[in-house]
Specification:
The protein has 388 residues and is an alpha/beta fold. The chain folds into two domains: 41-234, Alanine racemase (TIM Barrel, Alpha-Beta Barrel); 250-384, Lyase, Ornithine Decarboxylase, Chain A, domain 1 (Beta Barrel). The chain has helices spanning 27-39, 51-55, 59-69, 79-88, 105-110, 120-133, 154-158, 187-202, 213-216, 357-363, 368-373; strands at 8-11, 21-26, 45-46, 48-49, 73-76, 93-96, 114-117, 138-142, 170-175, 208-209, 226-227, 250-262, 267-268, 274-275, 280-285, 301-302, 311-314, 317-320, 330-333, 347-351, 380-384. Strands 1, 2, 12, 15, 19, 20 and 21 form a seven-stranded mixed beta sheet that branches. A hairpin with a 5-residue loop joins strand 13 and strand 14. The longest helix has 16 residues, at 187-202. It binds pyridoxal-5'-phosphate.
C-alpha cells in the first residue's frame, strides 16, 4: 500500500473490514487545491463552495481544512448546511446560495449567516427584517446573466441602485454564475462577463464575484473581489480540454465478496443484460447503486464489446463491469488478471489513479460532480491530513 506522511483518521462506526467500500479522502490535497486556485485567481479572495456536504466529502472535515489553508468565505446551498458549517467555523463568512426562504431571517441572524438575495421579494424581506432590528446586516445579491434560473434579471439589476431598500442592509457582494465556463471558447462566457460588468458599474463600491472553478481559468477576465470554486477543490478538472491542474481528493475502493467462473453463453446480473461469449472469471464487489455508484454505469452487451460503462482497477489493470449495477453489488470481468492477483477479500479501485472522478462520471453518462455528491453513507471513510 502507499506510504503515508500524514495521520489517517476513520470516522463513523463502520470498521474498514466490515465495509463494502472504503472512501479515502485526502484533506491535504483539498488544501493544496485551494492554494492552487488562489494562485490562479488574479489576486481575488478565494472562497470555497461547500454545498451538498462539501461535494460529498464531509462538510465538518472540509471546512476546517480549508480554513487552515486560509479560506475565510464559504458558500452553501441550504440554510441547514450553513448551520453545519457555522458549527465548525465560528468566525468565517458564510453565504447561502439558494435564496431567502420566507420567515427564515431570524435564523440567518442567530447564526450570523448571509443570504444570497435573488429577487426583489427577497430583498424586501431582508431589508424589512434589518429595519425592524435596527441592524444593517450583510447579504449578497445574485444577478442572473444567462442561466435563467436564480437571481435578478440584468434589467432588474440595472435598477438596483435606485431602490430604497438597499439602504437598510449592507450589500457585501454582487454575484452572478457562469452557464458553461468549462467550455473556454463558449461565447456565452464573454456575454455573461459583459452583462455582469454593466450591473457592477452601477454599484461600483460593492465587491463582485463571478467565477466558479472553471471561470478562474478563463483567459480573458476582469478583476473580481472574490472567486467561488467548488468542484476543482475536490479534484475535478476545471479545464476539461487540458491536463487537470488539481490533485485527487477522493479515492474509492470496493471489496471483492466472491469470485466465480461463468461459462460461455451465460449472462451476469439482473435481466441478463451481459453475455459471456467465452468462459469468464467474474468478481462480485460489495458496492452498488444504493452506495451512490450510478446504475447508469451498467455494462449491457457481450463480453468482447467495448462498452462505455463502469470500470474497476484490479492489481493496476482496468477491468470492465459485467451486467447491470445492482442495489448492493457490482460484477466485474477479471478474466485478464492473473488468478493469483484477484482473491476473495481483496479490494479493487473504483475511483483513483487513472480512474478519475471525471472519467467515472463520463462512463456513467453524467458528470463527476454527480459522482462526488452521491458518495454514499455506507462506506467506511478515512481522512488523511487536515489536522493542523
Ligand atoms: C455550485 C456553485 C459554484 C461552484 O461551482 P463549481 O463549478 O463547482 O466550481 C459557484 N457558484 C454558485 C452560485 C454555485 O451554485
Amino acid at each position: 500500500m502507499t506510504k503515508l506522511d500524514s495521520p489517517i483518521t476513520t470516522t463513523g462506526s463502520i470498521p474498514e473490514n466490515a465495509a463494502g467500500g472504503v472512501l479515502h479522502i485526502d484533506l491535504d490535497a483539498l488544501a493544496s487545491n485551494w492554494r492552487t486556485l488562489r494562485d490562479n485567481a488574479g489576486g481575488a479572495e478565494t472562497g470555497a463552495v461547500v454545498k451538498a456536504n462539501a461535494y460529498g466529502i464531509g462538510i465538518e472535515k472540509a471546512v476546517p481544512a480549508l480554513g487552515q489553508a486560509g479560506c475565510r468565505t464559504f458558500f452553501v446551498a441550504h440554510l441547514s448546511e450553513a448551520i453545519r458549517a457555522r458549527a465548525v467555523a465560528p468566525d468565517a463568512t458564510i453565504y447561502v446560495l439558494n435564496g431567502l426562504f420566507t420567515g427564515t431571517c431570524p435564523t440567518y441572524a442567530e447564526f450570523d449567516l448571509r443570504p444570497v438575495l435573488g429577487s426583489f421579494e427577497e430583498i424586501e424581506e431582508w431589508a424589512g427584517f434589518c429595519r425592524g432590528r435596527g441592524q444593517k446586516r450583510k447579504a449578497a445579491i445574485h444577478v442572473d446573466t444567462g442561466m435563467n434560473r436564480l437571481g435578478l434579471t440584468v434589467s432588474q439589476g440595472l435598477t438596483l441602485k435606485d431602490r430604497a431598500e438597499l439602504k437598510d442592509f449592507e450589500t457585501a457582494l454582487l454575484m452572478s454564475h457562469f452557464v458553461s465556463a468549462e467550455e473556454s471558447d463558449n461565447p456565452l462566457n464573454i456575454q455573461q462577463i459583459e452583462a455582469f460588468q454593466a450591473v457592477r458599474s452601477t454599484l461600483p463600491d460593492v465587491p463582485a464575484s463571478l467565477p466558479n472553478s472553471s471561470g478562474i481559468f478563463l483567459r480573458d477576465k476582469p478583476q473580481y473581489a472574490l472567486v467561488r470554486p467548488g468542484y476543482a477543490l475536490y479534484g475535478g478538472n476545471p479545464t476539461p480540454d487540458q491536463a487537470n491542474p488539481m490533485k485527487p481528493v477522493v479515492g474509492l475502493e470496493a471489496r471483492i465478496v466472491q469470485l466465480r467462473w461463468v461459462e460461455a453463453d451465460h449472462t451476469v446480473g439482473y435481466n441478463g443484460r451481459w453475455l459471456a461469449l467465452s468462459k469468464r472469471r467474474i468478481a462480485t464487489l460489495s458496492v452498488g447503486y444504493a452506495d451512490g455508484y450510478p446504475r447508469s454505469s451498467s455494462a449491457r452487451g457481450k463480453s468482447n464489446d467495448e462498452l462505455l460503462a463502469g470500470m474497476a482497477l484490479v492489481a493496476g489493470r482496468p477491468c470492465p463491469f459485467a451486467g447491470n449495477v445492482s442495489m448492493d453489488l457490482i460484477a466485474i470481468d477479471v478474466t485478464d488478471v492473473p488468478e493469483s492477483q484477484v482473491q476473495r477479500g481483496d479490494t479493487v479501485t473504483l475511483i483513483g489513479g487513472d480512474l478519475t472522478v471525471d472519467k467515472v462520471g463520463r462512463r456513467a453518462g453524467t458528470i463527476g460532480y454527480e459522482i462526488l455528491t452521491n458518495l454514499g453513507s455506507r462506506y467506511a471513510r478515512t481522512y488523511r491530513g487536515g489536522q493542523g
